[in-house]
Structure formats: C-alpha cells, structure tokens
Amino acid sequence: MRILVIGSGGREHALCWALAASSLTDALYCAPGNAGIAREAECVPIDAGDGAGIRKFAGDNAIDLVVIGPEAPLVAGLADALESDGIPAFGPSAKAARLEGSKGFAKDLCARYGIPTAAYGRFTGLAPARDYLARVGAPVVVKADGLAAGKGVIMAETVAEAEAALAGMLQEGRFGEAGAAVVIEEWLSGEEASFFALVDGVTALPLASAQDHKRAGEGDTGPNTGGMGAYSPAPVVTEQMAGRIMDQIVEPTVAAMAGMGCPYRGVLYAGLMIGEDGAPRLLEYNVRFGDPECQVLMPRLMSDLLPALMAARDGQLRHFDLRWHEDAALTVVMAARGYPGPYEKGSEIEGIARAEAIPGVTVFHAGTAREGERLVAVGGRVLDVTARAPTIAEAKARAYQAVDAIDWPGGFCRRDIGRRAAGG
C-alpha cells in the first residue's frame, strides 16, 4: 500500500515510525513532516491545512490510505473531501469531528445521552456567562468552544481568574473564532487518564491506556500546554475500569453519533477524570491520537498498525483484535524555552544519536528541521524522548538518561513525568 500521513509533529512521527515497519507499506509519505519523520517517510512540502494540495498529491500519487494526524484538518472536512475523491481516509467526517471541534456540542451530547461528565453552561455573551459564574462560584474550568491548539482551557481557581478568562475570550478575542463561544465547567478532582479506541462507525476496539501531563511546570503547575510528557499504561485504568469506560462513555458515544446520522470512524480519544469514588467522567473528546500519548502507544503496539487503521475505515473492527507489549513506555517532551508562550526558533540540537543508543529509546521529532547538517528547533514542543522498559520506573530512568544525552541549551523539560506511577 501507498500511505500518506498528514501532519508535522511528534504524533505523526510515531505514526510514520509504526507504519514504516508494516510489511504492507510499499511507499510512505508525510505532508509536511519534519527532520525526524524524514528518516521514516518521504516528506512533501504541503501544509496540513492545504486540503486542495493534499487531495491533488494523493490523486497524482495513487495513495491507498491517507492517515490524518491533527484535529484541524479533520474538523475542516479533509476526510470527507478525500473520500469524495475516492481516496480512503483514516479519520472522522467533519460532522463527527464536532466532538472535538465544539466543546459545547460534546457537552450537549453527553447531557442528552446520559454520558457522565462535569456540570456545565454554554455561553456566547459575557453578561450571561458572568451571571452563571456568580451562581456556581469557583474553582471552575473555562474552555474555548473551538480549537485552540491545546491552550484554550483555563483552570480558574478563583472567580477573578474565571472572569479574566471569560473577558479574554468573549470580549478581547483571545482565541479568535475558537473563543467566540465558551463552556464553563465544574472543576473535577481525581486522577486524569487518556483512553483510546478505534471506531468503525459501529464497533469500538479499545487501545492501551495512557496518562498525559498538560501543565508546563513540575508538580502540575504553570500554564496548560499541548502536553509535556506521557506514559502507558495508566495504572488507574485497570481492566475493570476499562470496561466501565467502554460501557458508560465510549460505546454510548459511538451509538449516539450513529443515531445522529454521523457515524464515527477513526480513533476516539476520551480525556477522563477518575474520581475518588472510582467513577470515570468525561473531561473532553478528541478525534485523533493524542500528542504525546501516541508516542507511548506506538512503541507498545505489537500488532501491525496499518491493518487496524484499514479495518476501522472499512467497518471491519468486529473481526479484529490487537496485541500489546507488556512493557511500559514513557515519553518526555523537550520544548523550546518560553513555551507555551513566545519562544525562539533556530537553536541547534545535538546528541540525538547518543540518546537513541540507550536500549529501548526512540526520539520522536515534533518541531525540527534541517539547515544543512544542523538539526534545529522550529517549534514549541520539539522532541519526544521515549523509552520502553519492563516498568514505568525503568522507562522513566531510561528516558531521562536519554534527555541528558541530548545537547540543546535552548530547550527545557519537566523532570517529573510519570512521578506518580513510577513511585517518585
């Protein structure tokens, strides 16, 4: 098969890494890719948001499957456009992608179908939002309704913080159109987890669990980011808990979308809070593999990824199963200093080969480019230093050993990824 992956981040590098290992892959392309992805695939200079360019390339190059990594092209309808051209695509339709494209749509679906989630209110005007906030008090979570590159969620511990977030979105246009509507949500406590399932419109096949670290600072402090590290499996997601998540959240969602006439096909990512009472509640849906969770799922996947993606697209998951390595995996994100705020581009990175010489270590690239012989940082999140080992503690030790082998003064990372699961 001839495969085209869309995207340029660490998630797409992990997908290309897995797809390149498939015996079914004859040719592998990535648009636009990055310096690390170029080791696995032929990178083509087409932006992930250039739907027309992607469609032309896929048609001209007899692509058998397009795997769409990021959420924005999915919400914009890239999968629909490719399928209308007769080109198979892995990823949900634009209507199904509303699960991530609109926080309000997702919350209303939960309310309508009895899917456990936080209490909430939806608003487009500042005055009614403030009135609701005055009634419920703080702490609360303020969310931009649309896509905001992982930065549209404000954890407001005080009413003043919540009011500032509301004004920033609804009055000052902080997130543009994405923040023209907001969701004010109950603050849930407990332990977060990421749960993934492949879905073919009817059947959902659970994948391995993972846990992400969203905050920029150690001890889960500082601003929210796109993710500073992850590990798999998540100890909080026991076999029994996975069953509850499927029964109470994933399968009702799949049934609801089918009933609404927009069956969901692709990977469904449920961001969860497991409360102290042991009950899972939905924080948010995503309509693609998580980043950086994909970077710990792919090294643990024993089965060939490509047939699984095709089975989801073709409606054949009821006949399918996946095998996973017993090993754990952990990834540490190395980001440019200043991220998630302003950061400089162009700083040189050295030592990747030293890091990957450590047993079980793979360095996925998230924001890199080549300038001649120099490897340079061109993004906020730049490297995903990933290790697989028998336990989370061992994977953590190997990952940080690899981090220390990389020479990049312009970068930083959290030093506590996996702390809770690894026992310190």
Descriptive account of the structure:
Helix content is 31%, strand content 27%. The chain has helices at 10-20, 51-60, 71-75, 78-84, 98-101, 103-113, 126-136, 159-171, 239-259, 294-300, 305-314, 352-356, 392-405, 419-422; strands at 2-7, 27-32, 42-43, 65-68, 89-90, 120-123, 140-144, 153-156, 182-186, 191-200, 204-206, 211-212, 215-217, 221-224, 229-232, 265-274, 280-286, 328-336, 348-349, 361-365, 368-371, 374-377, 381-389, 411-412. Strand 13 (215-217) and strand 14 form a beta hairpin. Strands 12, 15, 18, 20, 23 and 24 form a six-stranded antiparallel sheet that branches. The model has no long low-confidence stretch (mean pLDDT 96). Helix 1 (10-20) packs parallel to helix 10 (294-300) and helix 7 (126-136) runs antiparallel to helix 8 (159-171). It is an alpha+beta fold and 424 residues long. The protein has four domains: 2-91, Rossmann fold (3-Layer(aba) Sandwich); 125-180, 2-Layer Sandwich (Dna Ligase, domain 1); 191-319, D-amino Acid Aminotransferase, Chain A, domain 1; 328-422, Glycinamide Ribonucleotide Synthetase, Chain A, domain 4.
